[in-house]
Design goal:
Helix content is about 35%, strand content about 25%. It is α+β, with helices and mostly antiparallel strands. The strands form two sheets. An eight-stranded mixed β-sheet has the order 1-2-3-4-5-12-6-11, sandwiched between helices. A four-stranded antiparallel β-sheet has the order 7-8-9-10, covered by helices on one side. A hairpin with a 6-residue loop joins strand 3 and strand 4 (about 85-90). Helix 1 (about 10-20) packs antiparallel against helix 2 and helix 8 packs across helix 9 (about 190-200). The chain is globular and about 60 Å long. InterPro entries: Acyl-CoA_N-acyltransferase, Acyl_CoA_acyltransferase, DUF5645, GCN5-like_dom. It holds the Pfam family FR47. This is N-acetyltransferase domain-containing protein.
């Protein structure tokens, strides 16, 4: 196949290339590096533990077999097919290697309904030309949003107080079913995915002191950013989301030495307004392209 899996050394070197770019390709660095961290963690899991982890956390990264990886950084990152996501990217201006990979690879299983994630505007034409036009029987839907980020300096100044009637603690595995039940984007593999995020990445919850029930939560997502921020409806308006954003941002800066980031879909004006208050700013627009079926 034209796509050849990267060796560990090649993957490590590719991650460092993106890391050295700073903010320019921050989203790519975060995605590849969190996968590298998962890879190390999962190698220590026994077979039963490994099978319990979401396929979205089991990623393989491929390069153009005859390409120049160091110069063009053309790659495809593909998860397992039970929770199928694909990220493709290149810095090659002509996108020649990327187009060849799309046109010739047999590694993409269209029947499994992959979600193409974090597709930037400059890569949309490749999707339409090399996927839709060449495979006219494929249907797909598009979800669009923006990549937002903050600065380490801003986050280090974050301060918050926890109300006396609640406690702030790391999320627990047993919180996953409730989180999934209230998540507006839930799907068949959602509980396995969220459970895996809690195990591998962690997150925080605000719990009632009186009965121990979780009231609000936030998770460090698969893009090494802020995700799944939600408060149960009866507890909205108490400032819990603000506390959780500040807590996770400080965790990402102080413990991970990373820049806090998040993705917000266009129609979520409430979240856009909330994150703007903490001086998050839009960096670029991106798209999630979900393959529905191949007739």
């Amino acid at each position: 196949d034209i796509l050849e899996e990267l060796s560990n050394d090649e993957l490590f070197n590719l991650i460092n290339l993106f890391k050295n770019d700073g903010e320019k390709h921050l989203h790519i660095y975060l995605y590849l590096n969190i996968y590298y961290i998962w890879k190390i963690k999962l190698e220590k899991f026994d077979e039963i533990e490994y099978q319990e982890i979401s396929d979205k956390c089991k990623i393989r990264v491929y390069k153009h077999r005859n390409g120049n990886l160091e110069l063009n950084r053309t790659f495809f990152a593909m998860t397992g097919e039970k929770d199928y996501a694909i990220l493709y990217f290149t810095v090659e201006q002509s996108q020649k290697e990327l187009k060849e990979c799309f046109a010739k690879t047999k590694r993409i299983n269209w029947n499994a309904g992959p979600m193409f994630v974090l597709v930037e505007n400059q890569f949309l034409d490749i999707f339409y030309e090399n996927v839709k036009l060449s495979k006219a029987n494929i249907e797909f839907e598009v979800h669009s949003g923006f990549f937002w980020m903050n600065s380490k300096e801003e986050v280090l100044n974050f301060q918050f107080e926890i109300p006396d009637d609640v406690i702030l603690e790391p999320l627990k595995i047993e919180d996953a079913p409730l989180i999934v039940s209230l998540w507006p984007h839930k799907y068949p593999e959602a509980e396995r995915f969220i459970t895996s995020m809690i195990k591998l990445n962690g997150g925080y919850g605000i719990y009632s002191k009186s009965n121990g029930n979780i009231l609000s939560w936030i998770i460090k997502n698969e893009y090494w950013g802020i995700g799944l921020l939600q408060t149960i409806s009866a507890e909205c308006g108490k400032g819990y989301a603000k506390i959780l954003i500040k807590k996770l941002c400080k965790d990402i800066v102080e413990n991970d030495d990373n820049i806090p980031s998040c993705y917000i879909v266009d129609k979520n004006t409430k979240s856009c307004a909330l994150f703007s208050k903490f001086h998050f700013y839009r960096v670029f627009s991106c798209h999630w392209l979900k393959i529905l079926r191949e007739n």
